[in-house]
Design goal:
The chain has four domains: 188 residues, P-loop containing nucleotide triphosphate hydrolases (Rossmann fold), CATH 3.40.50; 48 residues; 56 residues; 202 residues, Rossmann fold (3-Layer(aba) Sandwich), CATH 3.40.50.300. A six-stranded mixed beta sheet has the order 5-6-7-3-8-9, with helices on both faces. Helix content is 42%, strand content 21%. It has 545 residues and is an alpha/beta fold. About 2% of the residues have low confidence. Helix 9 packs antiparallel against helix 10, helix 12 crosses helix 13 and helix 12 packs parallel to helix 14. It has 16 helices and 18 strands.
Length: 545
């Protein structure tokens, strides 16, 4: 269905973004395209879709008339449109055609004979137009998709939808057109667990092919059967899901380390032999005037020189392996956080929501020091509203919500809307913490901001870079309660794992809305389940019960 052959792309005179990328997508194959942010995944999808031209290589679709469904990052439609106007772009034309057919039918019923023939001709054309539009606007299938993505009861404009609802609407519009090949750029962003599981099941039954960029590791485990990993400007194909890929890479790395360690042992042995021979020759030559002993010392020195040449050839040979590269981990320092009491969050008969419409009522909850709470539930049911009420950005509609003594909140917004797009990472950090430029640049270096990146406008940073910057701000400000609204949504897999590692060493408390099931399983001590006006508590760490 899709053949990607030897694709290369570069921007400017710098080294190529990627080079020699080749893989295929056949029917029933669901290929996960992974790699660090900035490795070129979205660029590659744009090349596949013809939005960008490669510097070399080719893209082949079989057959050329293949129906392709492409979901880019973010839904780019008029915010004034309604959900159904996006889903059925020809709905207005269909309604107009229905009116025309009805109008012409009424006209024929009362027309004189001399006008009947022209009316019948116009009626036939209008009826044919209506039939064609009816086939293209499959309302029954569309409403089924809207129900699956929990959009069927919403009568609002697109501009009023959340990020997750926009993603689901884009998927619904895509699937409605019955594509044979799917090209999906991070379709799991903002999707809740219910929608993720529905999409996983749908993909497993999909008879076509799919090329999917995603950082959701559980989704990649459940949905794909092949991985294409872009790293160091190259792409490599792995059979199986994400877990199979990790096991293969880990096994290869273990073997690489074993070979390298054996090599280091051999190098050390050869160096010791050379040192021993040269030292022995020097001692004998300096300690005796006997000509026989001096000749013997010269022979030993000659053998030592030979061993030294052999070592040099070995070090320069192709059989020598380089030391495996260590993954660059985020280095975070959570020292000197303000001490807190035993309880950090209290909700007493609280109701939350907007205006006079509560999303959740009668909430009686507390969060203890060191607890790691994840809030799960469908989009639009009040998770983000709950977080904003706890941090004081919204007032409760009833009851009380308060924080414990000495609590300093660090809030990471879902859409990163608390960053000034005109500022830089360096200036933003210096405004938040008393650091000089050298200290601030060194600190940002721990969060993977290198070279001139700290001086770039925030508007030009990727989602992953913005998330890392906001995490750096929380650390620099000494927060002891982190309130995180989908903090890893736009992070690549390595950055997600670095984020998890950082939080695992954080001694404070964490309250997070996260849809990444890997993250939840590894991190949460408590889960607050939110759905249809109810909040239930699941204790995952019995020590906190």
């Amino acid at each position: 269905m899709l053949v990607v052959s030897n694709i290369a792309k570069r921007f400017g005179i710098e080294e190529p973004l990627f080079n020699g990328v080749s893989f295929t997508v056949n029917a029933r194959e669901r290929v996960g395209l992974i790699g660090p942010n900035g490795s070129g995944k979205s660029t590659l999808l744009k090349i596949v879709m013809g939005e960008l031209q490669p510097d070399q290589g080719s893209i082949l679709f079989t057959p050329p008339s293949l129906r392709i469904g492409y979901l880019a990052q973010g839904l780019t439609v008029d915010d004034n449109l309604t959900i159904r106007e996006v889903l059925y772009p020809q709905l207005t034309a269909l309604e107009t055609a229905e009116v025309d057919v009805e109008r012409l039918a009424d006209a024929m019923a009362t027309a004189h004979d001399d006008a009947l023939e022209s009316l019948m001709s116009a009626y036939g054309e209008a009826l044919e137009r209506l039939e064609n539009l009816s086939r293209s606007v499959d309302v029954a299938k569309g409403e089924t998709l809207l129900a699956a993505f929990e959009l069927d009861n919403l009568v609002v404009q697109v501009g009023n939808l959340s990020g997750g609802q926009k993603t689901r609407l884009g998927l619904a519009a895509l699937l409605l057109n019955a594509p044979q090949l799917l090209i999906l750029d991070e379709p799991t962003n903002h999707l809740d667990v219910v929608a993720l599981e529905w999409l996983e099941g749908w993909l497993q039954d999909f008879d076509g092919g799919a090329l999917i960029v995603s950082h959701d590791r559980t989704f990649l485990d459940h949905a794909v059967n092949q991985i294409v990993a872009i790293q160091n400007h190259r792409a490599r194909v792995y059979v199986g899901n994400y877990r199979d890929y990790v096991e293969t890479v880990q096994s290869e790395q273990d073997k690489h380390w074993a070979v390298w360690r054996d090599q280091q042992t051999e190098i050390a042995r050869m160096e010791q032999v050379v040192h021993h021979m040269m030292s022995k020759a020097a001692r004998k030559e300096n300690a005796t005037k006997d000509s026989t002993q001096r000749r013997y010392a010269k022979k030993v020195a000659k053998r030592g020189k030979a061993q030294e040449k052999r070592l040099e050839r070995y070090l320069a040979s192709d059989e020598r392996v380089d030391k495996p590269q260590q993954t660059w981990q985020l280095k975070l320092d959570f020292a000197d956080l303000p001490a807190t009491g035993q309880d950090v969050v209290f909700l007493e008969d609280a109701a939350i929501g907007y205006g006079d419409t509560p999303l959740l009522e009668h909430l009686n909850l507390s969060m203890r020091a060191g607890e790691r709470v994840v809030v799960l539930g469908p989009n639009g049911h009040g998770k983000s509203t709950l977080l904003k009420t706890i941090i004081g950005a919204l007032s409760p509609l009833a009851g009380s919500v308060r924080l414990g003594a000495s609590i300093k909140v660090g809030y990471l917004a879902q859409e990163q809307d608390i960053l000034d797009p005109t500022g830089t990472a360096l200036a933003t950090l210096q405004q938040a913490s008393p650091m000089n430029q050298t200290e601030a640049r060194s600190f940002l270096h721990f969060f993977l901001f290198t070279g001139d990146n700290p001086l770039r406008p925030i508007a030009d940073l990727s989602y992953g870079e913005r998330s890392r910057l906001m995490l750096a701000l929380l650390v620099a400000q000494g927060s002891n309660l982190l309130v995180l609204d989908e903090p890893i949504n736009h992070l690549d897999v390595p950055s997600r794992e670095q984020f998890e590692q950082a939080l695992s060493s954080f001694p404070g408390s964490v309250l997070a809305v996260v849809h990444d099931r890997y993250f939840v399983d590894k991190f949460a001590t408590t889960v607050w389940h939110v759905r249809e006006g109810e909040l239930t508590v699941e204790i995952r760490d019995p020590m906190l019960a």
